[in-house]
Specification:
Two copies of one chain form a homodimer.
Chain A lengths: L8 E6 L29 H7 L10 E6 L3 H7 L8 E4 L5 H15 L4 E6 L3 E2 L2 H17 L3 E6 L10 E9 L7 E7 L4 H9 L3 E11 H11 L1 H9 L9 H8 L8 H6 L5 E6 L3 E2 L4 H7 L8 E3 L2 E5 L5 E4 L4 E5 L4 E6 L2 E6 L6 H5 L2
Parallel strand pairs in A: 1-2, 1-4, 2-3, 6-10, 12-14, 13-15, 14-16
Antiparallel strand pairs in A: 4-9, 5-11, 6-9, 7-8, 7-9, 8-10, 16-17
Helix pairs in contact in A: 3-6, 3-7, 6-7
Chain lengths: 357, 357
């Protein structure tokens, strides 16, 4: 039975982001999830897809993205049906995105069991990842639980939200899964340090597992406005009219995250603490932390990069650019197309400022 | 008579260099003399040509360059006759270059009076420059003197050769022109400081003035081998055979500079001390010294360059590149085509190393 894939398993890849903290590598025309950051030949969204091989069949992989990225997604994920690429006419945060795809999937298979994941994260231990995902899918196939994956923190990261687990309250049917006590916004450093010291805090990975009835019911309760919009579109899902009606109605949705809309309100919220080498690779600094470095601590992407007296830098070019860097310590040198950025790694939170037109 | 141009006046622009210290802006495919370094719309060779307007008629402007730059020269100097662009099949330093063009000009006009200049220098006071050039040409039209222009040093520059004048020995016919005592190689800093303190040392600009008989005779005496080659070609100058015969014979010339071949040996050598805002713009540092800087000492060429907390840098891109630099002090950031260089200004003498394939 090793090759058996549960036909109810569905994967939803949310790929509408613009990765603005990764400028200039990531641009609104070609954001981070579609880029081969590590120079391995696979982009983030392709790596995301790859790590579900054997767990979800390609026919059950869904991508929600912006209209402008439709062609990139088809090109990068040629094995998934074109009809599974759902296009948002505008950005409305994660709750409307998840509502749309949930109603869409429910129309096709009311017994669907879903994993929702961002398109642009990194997982290094895919074997453990698959074990966790399968275990969680098993759990949600039998319960009405909303499950989030909580990452064991390895440092007092202030760039992530945290999930506080109630470690006394393991689920009866899966001893690895616990009730959530509370969700915590991105903390300051002191608070983050406290979280790391205590055992019950986990990074919020933004990866969710639930069956489709559970999320649809939760949205009906907590976001009746959004729910009504997608409920009304039931007759058109999978038809020629779908995109046109979505274009008309999607913009009417409130812009709200799934965390605010559902997670922080619902009752049956669980966390699955896990440790599979996860990073959201949200910043140049995080890339520097996880990517291979040379003996001077430089992370280099590019086919023709030469460094002299240079250390602790991220040097990143996606082209056949010849780059010579001498005498830099702790800088980002990032070049893409018509843009070049040189800035201190410690100043990378200002990249939005730098990239503003 | 303000518009009278002496028809014997000829200008020779030596444009065969590769400007390796200005990499990556200057490349062997498109070296420094053909680049609009200051973003003014005129390249070095064009500025060189421009500053002789009214002194030498376009028909008497000659360019000696490499075969591979023939088209660039025609394009950048459309007003000079194509036949005046002399093409060296290989590099043999300045003596063969000057010998070739001198025999070539002499075949056309034995009374020619020449200014020889590199293609890639900067002169800021063109009015004074023209006064000096006209005065020197007047002098060499009546004497067999070899005149060099000596620049009043403004700093103990170790990148230039120096000319020691005998200030007791002004020429009788032109009180601004002195006999040369000796030529000095590029000095070390201590020696350069001494030179600047004394009054009789001048930078060797590499600009020479002489009549064509004088230089031809001097070459016959000091470089009989080279001279014989160009003497033998007298029947073909200006004919269809010229390039073919040059291609055959030019490579036979000894590779030697005009300074070694003639200047340091001949008797009637004079220096015309002058001060017209000259720089050979031989390095990024010299560009930084002479080009306009912003209030933080940054010299910026590029249409879309933004600097944050950056000072004393040269940021140079010849393209419509968007460049953001944060947190650099005293660096070169130079980008051209498929190459990007970032290095400390104080390390620029290593650019040849950096640019090696």
């Amino acid at each position: 039975m090793g090759d058996f894939i549960n036909p109810n398993n569905n994967l939803v890849i949310m790929a509408g982001g613009v990765g603005s903290r990764f400028w200039p590598m990531s641009t609104t025309d070609y954001p981070k999830q579609f880029i081969d950051v590590f120079g391995t030949g696979r982009t983030f969204i392709q790596m995301t897809y790859d790590r579900f091989k054997g767990v979800v069949s390609p026919d059950n992989v869904w991508v929600v993205t912006s209209e402008k990225y439709a062609d990139i997604v088809s090109e990068q994920l040629p094995d998934i049906p074109k009809g599974n690429i759902l296009l948002e006419p505008c950005r409305r945060n994660t709750a409307p995105c998840i509502a749309y795809v949930s109603w869409r999937i429910k129309a096709k298979n009311p017994k669907a069991n879903l994993v929702i994941t961002p398109a642009d994260h990194l997982v290094t231990d895919v074997v453990e990842f698959q074990r966790v995902i399968k275990s969680a899918l098993g759990f949600t196939s039998e319960t009405d639980a909303i499950v989030t994956l909580g990452m064991t923190p390895t440092r007092p990261e202030t760039g992530y939200g945290y999930i506080q687990a109630d470690l006394q309250e393991a689920s009866l049917s899966n001893k690895e899964i616990f009730r959530v006590d509370s969700f915590k916004e991105k903390p300051d450093l002191a608070t983050a340090k406290e979280y790391v010291k205590k055992k019950e805090f986990y990074w919020n990975s933004g990866i969710f597992i639930w069956n489709v009835s559970t999320i649809v019911n939760a949205l009906r309760i907590y976001e009746p406005g959004i729910s009504r919009i997608f409920e009304n579109l039931l007759p058109v899902y999978g038809t020629d009219k779908e995109q046109e009606m979505i274009n008309k109605n999607f913009p009417l949705c409130e812009s709200i995250s799934i965390d605010y809309a559902v997670m922080e309100k619902a009752e049956e919220i669980f966390v699955f603490p896990a440790n599979f080498g996860w990073s959201d690779v949200g910043t140049w600094g995080s890339l520097h932390t996880i990517a291979p470095v040379d003996k001077n601590g430089n992370n280099i992407i590019g086919n023709n990069v030469r460094l002299y007296e240079t250390s602790n830098c991220v040097v990143h070019t996606t082209e056949e650019k010849r780059v010579v860097v001498q005498g830099l310590d702790g800088y980002i040198v990032a070049e893409k197309g018509d843009t070049l950025l040189i800035c201190k790694l410690e100043e990378e939170q200002r990249i939005k400022e730098f990239s503003a037109e």
